[in-house]
UniProtKB/TrEMBL annotation:
Keywords: Amino-acid biosynthesis, Aminotransferase, Histidine biosynthesis, Pyridoxal phosphate, Transferase. Coiled coil: none annotated. This is Histidinol-phosphate aminotransferase. Belongs to the class-II pyridoxal-phosphate-dependent aminotransferase family. Histidinol-phosphate aminotransferase subfamily. Pfam families: Aminotran_1_2 (PF00155). Its EC number is 2.6.1.9. It comes from Schaalia naturae. The gene is hisC.
Length: 383
């Protein structure tokens, strides 16, 4: 007997015809496309994680510790060492990657009838967080050299009265950091230019996404320094980048009590598995070893930027573990020519620009050789 014809399923209209987001995961020798840390964890770290996961496995019949206090305390300790700012562990919040942290923020502060703003070029997932939480996404423009244009910020905030302002610093894909006085000004504007809710004026929540914070250059402050006195500020971090734990999926934030309380309302119960918590805690015990790679990666980044400039290319100032460079009449042709030579980078950012992540010295050498070869085959060496 044939089953009756099933009508189409009720997919949300705004999702119809869309493709899932995701950078290509290609098996090529040199992968420099998603800003990972190129160094796998050492044997000592792997052994400690294995022990911790084994221990956690003995209790897997039980739900995990719902509020992850031990992990949040370890993250607070890490932030104090990394940035000099001590945050109470109860004001640190963790989830499965900073992607989940930010979706939770929009679940709590966005939603139908509300607006989240960002300033392009910026991280392409932001508009997806907005879409998935039914929050309106409005994008202003960055100014010269991809810096925030404060007149533009004021114009957009006055016009839109957003609930949330999302700013990545260092920004992806440009690598540029927010200047501290600029962030102070944004925080002042956000205090006054948030939405009306139930007839009362509210502050906009300002999220500074410091996914690449640890790579910032000497003297560039973290937004963590501005938490005191700004209860509408959230600073988001991740273990995916400098910490070399992208596969773990652990993001976190530091903020004020009212914001953590709001996140507790929307998080799914037991959202952080026992094995995730155990792995993150074990990795954090090795923070000195993991952090030791950062200086080397920063040096490699600066050498890469100088080399690209030496080739006559434009390079955005980078405080991150990647570099945005250009400009090319046909950036896709350059991307594919590099891929043909076994080097995967990313077509992202404004037209004409490409982004390359910082890898090991050997990977960077392979990138330089490949790019020189591409140049040599195009119009007599000019890129
Ligand atoms: C600016 C920015 N924020 C957040 C993320 C997401 O990081 P996570 O792995 O913690 O979800 C990325 C990842 O590339 C990013 O570039």
């Amino acid at each position: 007997m044939s089953s009756p014809a099933t009508p189409p399923l009720p997919l949300r209209e705004d999702l119809e015809g869309l493709e899932p987001y995701g950078a290509p995961q290609l098996d090529v020798p040199v992968r420099l496309n998603v800003n990972e840390n190129p160094y796998p964890p050492s044997d000592a770290v792997v052994a400690d994680i294995a022990r911790a996961v084994e221990e956690a496995a003995r209790g897997l019949n039980r739900y995990p510790d719902r509020d992850a206090p031990e992990l949040r305390a370890a993250l607070a300790d890490y932030l104090a060492v990394e940035s000099g700012v001590r945050v109470d562990p109860s004001l640190v919040w963790a989830a499965n990657g900073s992607n989940e942290v930010m979706v939770q923020l929009l679940q709590a502060f966005g939603g139908p009838g509300r607006t989240v703003v960002g300033f392009a070029p910026t991280y392409s997932m932001y508009h997806e967080y907005a879409r998935d939480t039914n929050t309106r996404w409005v994008q202003g423009q960055r100014g010269d050299r991809f810096a925030l244009d404060l007149d533009e910020v004021e114009r957009v905030l006055r016009a839109e009265r957003p609930s949330v302002v999302l700013l990545a610093s260092p920004n992806n894909p440009t690598g540029t950091s927010l200047e501290a006085p600029d962030l102070r000004r944004v925080l002042d504007l956000a205090r006054d230019l948030g939405p009306q809710v139930a007839g009362t004026r509210r502050a906009a929540v300002v999220v500074v996404d410091e996914a690449y914070g640890e790579f910032r250059r000497e003297g560039v402050p973290s937004a963590l320094e501005l938490l005191a006195g700004n209860p509408h500020l959230v600073v988001s971090r991740t273990m995916s980048k400098a910490f070399g734990m992208a596969g773990l999926r652990l993001g976190y934030l530091a903020t004020a009590r009212e914001i953590v309380d709001a996140l507790m309302l929307v998080r799914l119960p037991y959202h952080l598995s026992a094995t995730t918590q155990a792995t993150a805690l074990a990795a954090l015990r090795h923070r000195e070893e993991l952090m030791a790679q950062i200086a080397g990666l920063r040096g490699e980044r600066d050498r890469l930027a100088a080399w690209l400039r030496g080739r006559g290319l434009e390079v955005a100032d980078s405080d991150a573990n990647f570099v945005l460079f250009g400009t090319f009449a046909d950036r896709r042709a350059v991307f594919h020519a590099l891929l043909d030579r076994g080097v995967l980078i990313r077509v992202v950012g404004p037209e004409g620009w490409l982004r390359v992540s910082v890898g090991t010295p050997e990977e960077m050498e392979a990138f330089r050789v490949a790019l020189d070869d591409v140049a040599a085959r195009q119009s007599g060496g000019a890129l």
